[in-house]
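User: Can you help me understand a structure? I only have the sequence.
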Amino acid sequence: MLPKVIVHNSISLDNSLINFEVNMGLHYTIARGYKPDVHLIGSNTVKAGIELYGGTVPPEEGKDFKKPQRDKSLPYWVIPDTKGALKGLLHICRGFEFCKDVILLISEETSKEYRAYLEERNYSYHIVGKKRVDLKKALETLFKKYSAKTVLTDAGRILVDLLINHGFVSEISLLVHPVIVGNRGYTIFGGIDRSVNLKLHKKESLEKGCMWLVYKVEH
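Assistant: Let's start by predicting it. Here is the structure, written out as tokens:
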């Protein structure tokens, strides 16, 4: 059995994911309102976010080698990272107050060095694919191992579009910002390889001209 997968992204009026100022307060207020068991994030999205908002990466401390003790109602952050792109950065994610802990999805070809890095710091990880992460196997693992019934992702285009292309997404939530990015844009659905029928479920005007649109995916 697979969990319900919800895509939640902040976009410009012309569907760009980048080159505009996201209302982070609204974005995460909506995300938390779904009360997901798992927050699925792409490694590239995490790395870009750290570079954009994190500034200088602080050194690891003793607490970073231990699983945090946080409210059980918080979601796990689950990150596919077969190439170890987040080596040396994961403690920033683990330190985020709205994250229960970080879980990694890796492949059989992920390096022994990265696995040792994860084990030394007590990160849970799951091998769910030969070269790349098998998304179906990953979702099945999250359901079985962590009782994850709702997975929310605000990942970048690659992961989001893969989830949609494979038919795993049940709902799409878009926080539309009143700005046009134009030729500097990076459109959210640029990697979809088929037609996807949607049914409008909710539309709501929010602060600073933002519009919240929610669509159900018709399978």
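Now, to help you interpret it: The longest strand covers residues 4-11. DSSP finds six helices and nine strands in the chain. Let me know which part you'd like to focus on.
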